[in-house]
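Input structure tokens:
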């Protein structure tokens, strides 16, 4: 029996694959978005990563435009655009332009991270101190989107595009004060207290101030998810990214995804194996029945409004089958409001 809820969405980081050109990763994002729309996913988001060998997605606004042009009804967004790297006016203009071209379909997710290395930060002209100005930058962005700034961003957006804040560092408190939706992911969504709740989300709910964009708290939780015929097969689907992340801890470089068989696993250091296992421990994977139970538990614990699926795979066909199976587990009625962004009175 299919559940009417939760809504499920996808964040695709445009992972590169060893032996394939960058264009392959970008084209796969577009193909995955089209399938996600066909299978009833609510949103399809892309991310921002600069000078990372293993990720082809560096310009969310450009990739969002391509995704929106290839689809018809699914919401398209950024997860997220890093404000310290950009002028808020430019980000507002990008979002407003996309909204004008695809009314009611654009989400703007923003974060406070800067480049991972000094060279990248220098190239972006954004240092670690710029991340401390995130709340100020966010206020400027919202003023441009709402039309209340000294300069009017064109085309006018009039607060039509919902804004989501990635909950890194103080992001969750900033989101609450600004009256915006929040996205909580990674290990943070599994750190429950003695009551079995997530203190960060409880704080967000208690501090939330209604805004032009959201009348009440709105929460997306994100996690790496993989569904396969067996738990081992699902684990193998997530393993290439987990290993790439583990290796990046020591090499300083997140490489393109590569297959991880017994020989490749045996060649990892103990430290790399432990890091990969930690990554997998905060992922949801297994058979359809197992993953459904895991997701239901996560949503019951977090009381989130939506699940944002993350995680890249080397095996494209297996990832597509995982997406399809997950969509069937939480099948919607097929309806999707294209108004979903104008305040919480709409369905988002």
């Amino acid at each position: 029996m299919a559940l009417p809820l939760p809504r499920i969405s996808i964040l695709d980081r445009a992972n590169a694959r060893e032996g394939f050109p960058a264009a392959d990763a970008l084209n796969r994002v577009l193909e995955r978005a089209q399938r996600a729309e066909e299978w009833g996913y609510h949103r399809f988001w892309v991310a921002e990563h600069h000078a990372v060998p293993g990720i082809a997605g560096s310009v969310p606004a450009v990739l969002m435009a391509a995704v929106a042009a290839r689809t018809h009804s699914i919401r398209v967004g950024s997860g997220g655009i890093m404000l310290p790297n950009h002028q808020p006016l430019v980000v507002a203009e990008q979002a407003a332009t996309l909204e004008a071209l695809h009314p009611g379909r654009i989400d703007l997710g923003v974060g406070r991270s800067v480049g991972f290395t000094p060279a990248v930060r220098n190239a972006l002209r954004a240092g670690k101190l710029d991340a401390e100005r995130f709340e100020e930058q966010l206020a400027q962005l919202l003023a441009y989107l709402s039309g209340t700034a000294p300069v009017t961003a064109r085309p006018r957006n009039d607060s039509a595009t919902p804004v989501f804040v990635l909950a890194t560092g103080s992001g969750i408190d900033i989101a609450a004060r600004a009256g915006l939706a929040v996205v909580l992911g990674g290990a943070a969504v599994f750190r429950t207290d003695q009551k079995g709740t997530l203190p960060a989300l409880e704080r967000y709910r208690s501090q939330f101030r209604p805004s032009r964009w959201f009348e009440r708290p709105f929460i997306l939780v994100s996690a790496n998810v993989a569904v396969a015929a067996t738990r081992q097969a699902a684990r193998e689907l997530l393993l290439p990214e987990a290993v790439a992340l583990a290796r990046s801890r020591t090499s300083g470089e997140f490489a393109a995804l590569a297959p991880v068989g017994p020989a490749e696993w045996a060649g990892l250091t103990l430290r790399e194996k432990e890091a990969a296992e930690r990554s997998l421990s905060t992922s949801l994977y297994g058979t359809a029945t197992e993953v459904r139970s895991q997701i239901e538990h996560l949503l019951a614990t977090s009381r989130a409004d939506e699940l944002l699926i993350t995680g890249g795979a080397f095996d494209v066909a297996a990832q597509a089958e995982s997406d399809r199976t997950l969509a069937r587990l939480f099948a919607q009625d097929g309806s999707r409001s294209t108004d979903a962004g104008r305040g919480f009175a709409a369905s988002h």
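The two ends are 25 Å apart (CA to CA). The first strand starts at residue 7 and ends at 12.
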